From TrEMBL:
Keywords: 4Fe-4S, DNA damage, DNA repair, Glycosidase, Hydrolase, Iron, Iron-sulfur, Metal-binding. Belongs to the Nth/MutY family. Its EC number is 3.2.2.31. This is Adenine DNA glycosylase. It is an enzyme of class 3 (hydrolase). SUPFAM superfamilies: DNA-glycosylase, Nudix. One of its GO terms (molecular function) is purine-specific mismatch base pair DNA N-glycosylase activity. The keyword Cell cycle does not apply. It catalyses: Hydrolyzes free adenine bases from 7,8-dihydro-8-oxoguanine:adenine mismatched double-stranded DNA, leaving an apurinic site.
Length: 357
């Protein structure tokens, strides 16, 4: 059975109809690929349409401020993607055209091998195979490859295997008229992994590759692909105080070198990390002591709100302080009308905490 031809046939009958597949505009394709990193298609679709509507060209996106881009991105998480997107838009403007080679595409901030191959094959007909989580899974199962996908050897092995499977030009006889074959094939194998060869409960008994799939024949579908578990999960405890003072509140922007760079948050008197003896928390009196010269009421709104990131588990306490006098805060805090808080991009955890107000 020809692996590529079978996938192309499956794709013609089962492929997803996505708006960024109806264009060869590299900007629209690049935007979709950045949004869909670490994001499900259903959620990313809405954000893609939002960005295209507000910034229909790379020139428009480059002219936006980082704050505007972060605010539009709010809720998607992994905010470095938004900052990289904005930076790369300005790289493209400086270049004078959208890069159309794999080498130049990789120079864009936030674009790695997979994203470069996706943009290059779909927008510019480059013979480059994509390798994402779906592709790893399909190839590992079909060919019975048990090399861990998150090792250097695994990445090299799967990259070479994926490239070797790109269909040869004679397959053009299969007549995918609206797209170049490399683009169709890359989209086909990604959709196959997302719809047919899923991580859990794959549809093996109705799979067109079933008879020649090594994992199915050997009963190892649930064991592939192999991934080494080497991620250490850390815990952190955060404390936030929403200061309400004559219709205003204080916020500051998180700096570089930590989570949520560039996003805004309410007053944070302390951020305590885990220690040998576990997490420690600040008492109400300790929190008030950080707000010098204040006569006000401190109310606990939420305790131990759990929020899970990729390699961190956060626990947050949230307080409300109502006062008629502005406390002395560090110089990086600004005062804004409470009604304007929604104009600032905040982490999802802060959104959750603010709901308790």
């Amino acid at each position: 059975m020809d692996f590529a031809l079978t996938l192309l046939q499956w794709f013609r009958e089962n492929g997803r109809d996505l708006p960024w597949r109806q264009t060869r505009d590299p900007y629209a394709i690049w935007l979709s690929e950045i949004i869909l990193q670490q994001t499900q298609v259903k959620q990313g679709w809405e954000y893609w349409e939002r960005f295209i509507c507000r910034w229909p060209t790379v020139e428009a996106l480059a002219a936006a401020t980082e704050d505007e881009v972060l605010r539009e991105w709010q809720g998607l998480g992994y905010y470095s993607r938004a900052r990289n997107l904005h930076y790369a838009a300005r790289q493209i403007i400086d270049l004078g055209h959208f890069p159309n080679t794999l080498e130049d595409l990789r120079r864009l901030k936030g674009v790695g091998d997979y994203t470069a191959a996706a943009i290059g094959s779909i927008a510019f007909d480059l013979p480059a195979a994509v390798v994402d989580g779906n592709v790893y899974r399909v190839l590992a199962r079909y060919f019975g490859v048990n090399i861990p996908i998150n090792t250097t050897e695994g990445k090299k092995t799967f990259s070479a295997l994926a490239q070797s499977l790109l269909p040869e030009p004679p397959c053009q006889k299969q007549k995918d008229n609206c797209r170049h074959l490399n683009a169709v094939y890359n989209q086909a194998i990604m959709d196959f992994g997302a719809i047919q060869c899923t991580p859990q409960s794959p549809h093996c008994t109705v799979c067109p590759l079933m008879e020649s799939c090594e994992a199915f024949r050997s009963g190892k579908v649930g064991n592939l692909p192999v991934k080494l578990k080497n991620l250490k999960v850390c815990e952190r405890h955060l404390v936030y105080v929403y200061i309400r003072c004559q219709g205003e509140t204080a916020i500051h922007r998180r700096g570089a070198g930590d989570i949520w760079q560039g996003l805004w948050e309410p007053y944070s008197p302390t951020i305590l990390s885990e220690g040998k003896d576990g997490l420690t928390k600040s008492s109400d009196s300790e929190i008030l002591n950080t707000l010098r010269g204040i006569n006000g009421t401190l109310v606990s709104l939420r305790r131990d709100v759990k929020h899970v990131l990729t390699h961190r588990v956060l626990y947050a306490d949230f307080y409300l302080l109502e006062t008629d006098v502005r406390p002395e805060l560090p110089s990086d805090y600004i005062w804004i009308p409470e009604t304007q808080f929604s104009d600032y991009a905040v982490p999802r955890l802060i959104e959750i905490l603010l709901e308790s107000l």
